[in-house]
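Teaching assistant here, posting this on the class forum so everyone can see the example we discussed in section. The complex has three components, and the goal was to see what a joint structure prediction looks like when all of them are supplied at once.
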Amino acid sequence: SSHLVMPEDGYEWKKYGQKFIKNIQKIRSYFRCRHKLCGAKKKVEWHPSDPGGDLRVVYEGAHQHGSPASSSSAAAETGGAASNRYELGAQYFGGGAGARSQ
DNA sequence: AGCCTTTGACCAGCG
DNA sequence: TCGCTGGTCAAAGGC
């Protein structure tokens, strides 16, 4: 019943894995952009006991396509299709409560 | 019937 | 070299 409410960024993602990261004691879900030529990825991690209290979304890479399906462009990209910066220092977001980083 | 989520297994990098 | 942790794949189930 308890379905995790992750912040909708407007893009369409396909979940391809989920693991419990022992290092930080949190569950991490792996998503990939559904667009064919898009290598953008997304990782969502939360504390097993406080999903909404410690939610964390990590975006990796830039989308090779334009506007998302929805209108809300919450996911501010750096450069868009022009620059393809696949770096470790991706964008970290916090869902509502634990919003911080960058 | 099709799409997406789920869960375990498999694989790779590092100590 | 082995073991551990983290990342991805793939098949099954659910909606």
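For the discussion questions: The longest strand of chain A covers residues 13-21. The CA atoms of residues 3 and 51 of chain A lie 10 Å apart. Think about how each of these relates to the inputs above.
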